[in-house]
Write a structure and sequence with these properties.
- By secondary structure, this protein is α/β, with parallel strands linked by helices.
- It has one domain: NADP-dependent oxidoreductase domain (TIM Barrel, Alpha-Beta Barrel), CATH 3.20.20.100.
- Helices cover 41% and strands 15% of the residues.
- It contains 11 helices and 10 strands.
- The chain has helices at residues 24-37, 51-60, 81-95, 112-124, 138-146, 166-174, 196-205, 209-219, 231-238, 247-254, 269-276; strands at residues 3-5, 11-13, 17-18, 41-43, 69-74, 100-105, 128-134, 154-158, 178-182, 223-224.
- Strands 3-4-5-6-7-8-9-10 form an 8-stranded parallel beta sheet.
- Strand 1 and strand 2 form a beta hairpin.
- The radius of gyration is 18 Å and the shape is globular.
- Bound molecules: NADP nicotinamide-adenine-dinucleotide phosphate.
- Residues 18-21, 43, 106, 134-135, 156, 182-188, 193, 208, 210, 225-230, 233, 236-237 line the site of NADP nicotinamide-adenine-dinucleotide phosphate (NAP).
Length: 280
Amino acid sequence: MKTVILNNGVEMPILGFGVYQIKPEETEKSVLDAIEVGYRSIDTATAYNNEEAVGRAIKNSAIDRSELFITTKLWIQYAGYEKAKKAFDTSLKKLQLDYLDLYLIHQPFGDVYGAWRAMEELYKEGRIRAIGVCNFQADRLVDLSINNDITPAINQIETHVFNQQINNQQVMKKYNIQIESWGPFAEGKNNMFTNELLVSMGGKYNKSVAQIVLRWLIQRNVVVIPKSVRKERMIENFNVFDFELSSIDMQKISTLDTGASLFFDHHDPEMVKRLCSLHK
Ligand code: NAP
């Protein structure tokens, strides 16, 4: 498995398995299937309601803990120093783990500075191997980075062919922050799987559209965590290391960028209000 080296020297698989929207009762089997296929990096979150099932899968898999890379995330309602420490302990307990590989602030809202200080301490105590954030636009990311001891190792952000994050990636590179894509298939929005350019490119390389877009992200050095509950798709999404897109084809795919989210804008005041009031 190709890996990336994070800014603190920790090695992370460039391809992992995401479990957002997998029902709790389906999650253990899905994660066990993914591990059997070869995935070693698993991305969950407190907000996904399936950390316990991920924990059971880790426990019941034949793979040594040290070979796995486990990520979970701190939800908005737990932003703040004390709450973040408690939320971390709860997540570890649910996952049945004694350390995390990566802990991420899930949304850039609430007392993220308090949360970050708690995460820095947990990191220094050796309870988390790397800490990072999600959904931080470049301005917030730079602010957090320069006003704290530890620079985030990762920014996990919506990144796919229709929202390519070219400028954000450049800023992350400057600050040595690894970009990680969520929604590498845009969850199928915008008819991604039947896009004419991507289908024709699939024909050229004898690969599926899913494989083309994952490969395109990986060649841009973007960490990907595609989700599927179907084992045949897990296998398909895993088999992206036996071909290479030419620079001309990389360029062609870059023309699909709209520079806008297909989900929601983190700068939209109504959306911020809605997200922040979810727990109230
Ligand atoms: P995604 O991976 O872009 O898309 C998943 C969808 O694509 C599912 O409907 C899946 O259906 C389908 N699919 C998977 N492989 C396929 C294939 N080879 N061919 C056709 N369809 C395929 O969406 P996502 O789950 O939102 O994003 C990936 C991960 O990113 C999440 O699971 C989560 O871990 C993370 N994430 C993080 C945030 C954040 O705010 N930090 C937000 C969203 C997601 P089936 O399951 O039926 O195969």
